[in-house]
């Protein structure tokens, strides 16, 4: 069964988590995507773990997944997020970017 990947709540959050955390846990995933049930979070983490296995990346914490692998598995292109975020800041200023969704 295919897992439907939600959109990140905000570009700023996606960028911040990517650079702030080597590994992300359930609460980080919920911060990234919004209110998700535990089963949905588990499915998203499973996709990230598959990406980790394919790239021979081990986890430091059994309850977390590698952030870079997770973003790849979920189709989040950090360079694209940064480009869009910077464009929004240029067009609308810092205050508007906080509420882009």
Could you describe the 3D structure shown?
- By secondary structure, the chain is mainly α.
- Helix content is about 60%, strand content about 5%.
- The chain is built from six helices and two strands, in the order αβααβααα.
- The protein has a two-stranded antiparallel sheet with strand order 1-2.
- Helix 1 (about 10-20) packs across helix 5 and helix 3 packs across helix 4 (about 65-75).
- The chain starts with 10 loop residues before the first helix and ends with a helix.
Set out the fold topology:
Layout: H1 11-20, E1 23-24, H2 26-33, H3 38-54, E2 65-66, H4 67-74, H5 78-92, H6 94-97
Antiparallel strand pairs: 1-2
Task: Name the descriptors.
single chain; 101 residues; mainly alpha; 6 helices; 4% strand; globular
Quick structural gist:
The protein contains six helices and two strands.
Largest sheet: 2 strands, antiparallel
Helix count equals 6
**Could you give the distance between the termini?**
28 Å
Please compute the radius of gyration using only Cα atoms. 14 Å
What is the topology, as strand order, of the major beta sheet? 1-2
| Strand segment tally | 2
What's the helix-strand series?
HEHHEHHH
């Amino acid at each position: 069964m295919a897992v439907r990947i939600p959109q990140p709540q905000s570009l700023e959050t996606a960028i911040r988590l990517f650079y702030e955390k080597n590994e992300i846990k359930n609460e980080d995933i919920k911060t990234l995507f919004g209110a998700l049930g535990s089963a949905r979070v588990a499915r998203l983490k499973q996709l990230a773990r598959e990406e980790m296995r394919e790239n021979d990346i081990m986890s430091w914490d059994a309850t977390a997944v590698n952030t870079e692998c997770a973003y790849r598995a979920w189709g989040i292109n950090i360079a694209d997020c940064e480009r869009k975020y910077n464009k929004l800041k240029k067009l609308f200023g810092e205050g508007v970017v906080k509420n882009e969704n």
